[in-house]
Every structure is written in C-alpha cells, then in structure tokens.
Amino acid sequence: MRTLETALAACAQSLGITLPDGAPERFRVYYDLLEERNRVMDLTAVAGEEETAFRHFGDSLTPLLCEDLRDKRLLDVGSGAGFPGLPLLLAEPSLHLTLLDSQGKRVRFLEELCARLGVEAECLQARAEEQALLPGYRESFDVVTSRAVARLSLLGELCVPFLKVGGCFLAMKAEDCGEELEEARPGLGTLGGKVEAVREFTVGETRRKILVIRKVRPTPKGYPRKYARMVKKPL
Known about the structure:
It contains 9 helices and 7 strands. It is an alpha/beta fold. It has a 7-stranded mixed sheet, sandwiched between helices. It has helices at residues 4-15, 23-38, 49-60, 85-91, 104-117, 128-131, 152-159, 178-191, 227-232, and strands at 73-77, 96-101, 122-125, 141-147, 163-174, 193-203, 206-215. The chain has one domain: Vaccinia Virus protein VP39 (Rossmann fold).
C-alpha cells in the first residue's frame, strides 16, 4: 500500500495538477485528524492512506479541471468531512471558501480542521434551502460544489439559487448519472441553470462525472422551496 503522500502525488500527476508548496504536509494533517475523529464520528467509510488519497483527496481535486477557481468565491453544499471544498482550498489557496453543513458536529470538526491546517474558510451550520434566501448568500457565489449529497433534481434547487448569473454549479456524480441528469434538466432550466458540459474523470479505480451547470439567468422568487415540498414534488 502506498503512503498518503505517494498516492496523492500520483493523483495530482494523473490529473495534471501541480500542488502548491506545503500542500502535501497539510493533506497529512487533514488525514491524521480525519482518522482520529472518525473513530468517534461517522465522517467517512473510507479507511487507509492510499484509499483516502484517491477516493477523497484526489477525487476532490477534479473540479479544478472544470472551472478556473483562482480568487473565486466558492460554496460547498453538504460538506460533511470537507469534501471537495477543503482539498480545493489546499490546492488553490486564493479561493474564498464557505463550507455548509446542517449537522453541528460536522461543522465543529470543519472549524477544528481549518484551525489545524492554518487556512481560512467560513464554516456554516445551516440548511441550504434556508441559507439560499438570505442576502449575502443568494446569487452571491461564483462556484457551488456538492459531492454525494442528493439526486440532481433535488440538489439543483438547493445549489443553483446561491450562484451569481454567470457562475457555475459543479455537481460531482457517479459515472452512471445519465438518467438522473435528464430527469433534472427541466428543473435546472426553471432555476436559471443550463447544463454546459459533462466532464469525465478517472482517479485511481474510481470513475466519475462532473456536471457543469452554468447560471444563465436569475433564479425566480419562490425558489428554493421548503425541503419537504422539494422532496414531495421535485422540479
């Protein structure tokens, strides 16, 4: 089994990404705290240095190949253990990052992690459908990311309202997401989004797609709806 550092270097090389000075050391700090806290918290089912490097850290770097993130304001919805937002910040330190999760214990973990890493990010405990209605958040972000949170028909309504017109939603999905994408297209259009591209990546043995959804017009008032309404009647 490869060490975290060796596996991470292989990930970056395969993706054509050059990590900044100090990033490998910070990924080590990230891994060590994740392993420690995962013994008492349900943060991830992935274990071991090589698996974490490929399935979490390397996978989280793929949005860098979809959009120029330099100096951008990025919101990561449903951050959980910080993926993909924090690895993106370690790879692109100019990023202005907000990590959003509804569970307080996860947000407290993210706050501790940012302090250990010596990076600045807003760690926000909130529900996306409520936070997206607030000034300073609604239509305020250049990029929104989300990984393994919900089906796209629901996820689009949670994420697109946060975007500025011209911004993009990078939805990280499994390889077989074609049916899910077609199901969500009409709703994305209602929200002001348009599917711009579908990018495919292989990191280690994991194949995934990133759906690049561009915000082409403002989201109408009334969206996002209450969560129960979204679940009952997706767009």
